[in-house]
Design a protein that fits this description.
This protein is an alpha/beta fold and about 525 residues long. The chain starts with a helix and ends with a strand. The protein is built from 20 helices and 17 strands. It has a 7-stranded mixed sheet, sandwiched between helices. A 6-stranded parallel sheet has the order 2-1-3-4-6-5, sandwiched between helices. The chain has a 4-stranded parallel sheet with strand order 8-7-10-11. About 40% of the residues lie in helices and about 15% in strands. Bound molecules: thiamine diphosphate. Thiamine diphosphate binds next to helix 15 and helix 17.
């Protein structure tokens, strides 16, 4: 068999079941291998940022990598923003990048690029496979690297002659590395801090945001009085009625400083210290009191859930602590769009066990507290700040979880980066309700500009206003095979969303909020 075939067989044996792809000539032998070998679902993304965003959303929900098949350096480069988002969320990602045949590369053909250099910038593990004999074991190592906690980006570059050469055999899958445990002395040290009674906060991230981790953290908070928070954006969080409601550290520096004022200790549980997204003149980078100490309970790759459970036992927290309702009561609101009112309306209508992908930028600022009491669901955000994550992430999540309704909350400017994902949703008949917040501006950037004390001028209006011509989201969606409706009020949204949730398949609601 050839290198491409042995690699595909190795991936299938390693439980990689889906290939999100945008292939070219250098990947033709992979496509031929996929034609010949059963066991891999192939999904086309009509832009590489869709392919990598789908692979990210899939892995967040399936908790294992898909294969992202990309074309040469430029194809990989097109997908980098969403590889970056996956890297920032510690998501397992496996990129297979086809490239120039090794004997052809010295002629410097048009698509030759520093593919390794591009890959290295965003990957934890990079290799260019040297031969057909080697490529399957390279693949097994790449999967193992991707699945190494907390989740890594592995990029395997395969020259075309490595893919087409004969004499290869599949490799044996490699074991998945377990999360290392937190040392008992670290648990004791954190327990001592909590026993002092000084104001403390547990900052939770990664797999600590699953139901078990949140519940253990809740026990600790109950017994010690410590506050619980997540970072400003969450990679995936179990939320809704019966789950522990935990607020995020606010995005705006002054609001974060006020929310965390008075703290003497921040205990990191798979999280980084609370830094601002950006620096602002005269404001601190770390959004916490100057005399607050930082202690690490669990690094991102460690078993934070076990650490939280052991810490709860160590401080004598009761095993069963009722979860109190927090946040707002779900209800269908009426009138024009308002972030909080929309959140309450969504909370009233969100189907049980839904997956929410949130790339809603300024429109979504109040969604979190407003949806604590929705039906149980998972909430996914981009933690890398590269916008254009929502549509593809929702698409990949829907491939991973065909029995769950996916709700994609998408700002319009960010949505334009990767709207081709709608076509993939239609092609694959995925069960996604997309909600586009059409304010027809880059609102956040107007806000950043005004916060300097300036008023927008001609240049800022040219750069931050999305009108002239106006985007027609209903037309865009329909042209890609997705049914769509435009609404202007919360009651209109509620009716349309309810109907969209009552049917299967992709749907788009343009919420006009200009
Ligand atoms: C890949 C990438 N490019 C550019 C930016 C800079 N940026 C941040 S927010 C934003 C505009 C967001 O506008 P929109 O999605 O319409 O949301 P709104 O601010 O209107 O709520 C831009 C261009 C970014 N964060 N990521």
């Amino acid at each position: 068999m050839n290198g491409a075939e042995s690699l595909i067989l190795t991936l299938i044996a390693s439980n990689v079941e889906v290939c999100f792809a945008n292939a070219g000539t250098s990947e033709i032998h992979f496509v031929l291998a996929l034609d010949k070998i059963e066991g891999m679902r192939c999904v086309l993304g009509m832009a590489e940022t869709v392919v990598t965003g789908c692979a990210d959303g899939y892995a967040r929900m399936a908790e294992k990598p898909a294969m992202a098949l990309l074309h040469c350096g430029p194809g990989f480069a097109n997908g980098i923003a969403n590889v970056h988002n996956a890297r920032r969320a510690n998501i397992p990602m496996l990129n297979i990048v086809g490239d120039q045949a090794s004997f052809h590369r010295p002629f410097d053909p048009p698509l030759a690029a520093d593919t390794e250099g591009l890959a290295r910038a965003v990957s934890h593990w990079v290799r260019t496979s040297g031969s057909a004999q080697q490529v399957s074991s390279d693949g097994a190592e790449a999967i193992q690297a991707a699945r190494t906690p907390p989740g890594q980006i592995a990029t395997l570059i395969v020259p075309a002659d490595v893919a087409w050469s004969e004499g290869s055999i599949p490799a044996v899958p490699l074991p998945v590395v377990a999360r290392p445990r937190v040392a008992p002395e670290v648990l004791r040290r954190v327990a001592e801090i909590l026993h002092t009674g000084e104001p403390a906060m547990l900052l939770l991230n990664g797999h600590a945001l699953g139901e078990a981790g949140l519940f253990a953290a809740h026990r600790i908070a109950h017994a010690s009085g410590a506050m619980l928070r997540t970072p400003t954006q969450v990679p995936r969080m179990a939320r809704g009625r019966g789950r522990v409601p935990v607020e995020r550290v606010p995005y705006v520096v002054d609001k974060a400083l006020s929310a965390l004022s008075g703290l003497k200790h921040i205990i990191l549980v798979g999280a980084k210290p609370p830094m601002g997204f950006f620096a602002y003149h005269g404001k601190p980078s770390l959004m916490m009191p100057q005399d607050c100490a930082i202690t690490v309970l669990a690094r991102p790759e460690q078993d934070a859930v076990a650490a939280l459970q052991e810490l709860a036992d160590e401080i004598g927290a009761p095993g069963a602590v009722p979860v109190r309702e927090a946040g707002l009561t779900p209800r269908i609101a009426s009138g024009r769009f308002d972030s909080e009112a929309f959140g309450m309306t969504l909370a009233a209508l969100l189907p049980e066990n839904a997956i929410v992908t949130d790339d809603s930028v300024t429109s979504g600022r109040s969604f979190f507290p407003a949806t604590f009491n929705a039906a149980p669901h998972d909430w996914i955000q981009s933690t890398g700040g590269a916008i254009g994550h929502g549509f593809p992430c929702a698409t990949g999540a829907a491939v991973a979880c065909p029995d769950r309704k996916v709700v994609c909350l998408q700002a319009d400017g960010a949505g334009m980066y990767s709207l081709q994902a709608l076509w993939t949703q239609a092609r694959e008949k995925l069960d996604v309700v997309n909600v586009v917040f059409a304010n027809r501006v880059y609102k956040i950037l107007y806000g950043e500009l005004r916060s300097t004390g300036a008023e927008p001028g001609c240049a800022s209006d040219s750069l931050f206003d999305l009108g002239r011509p106006d985007l027609d989201w209903v037309g865009l969606a329909k042209s890609m095979g997705v049914e769509a409706v435009s609404v202007e009020t919360l009651e209109g949204f509620a009716d349309t969303f309810r109907a969209a949730c009552g049917r299967r398949g992709p749907f788009l609601i343009e919420f006009r909020i200009f």
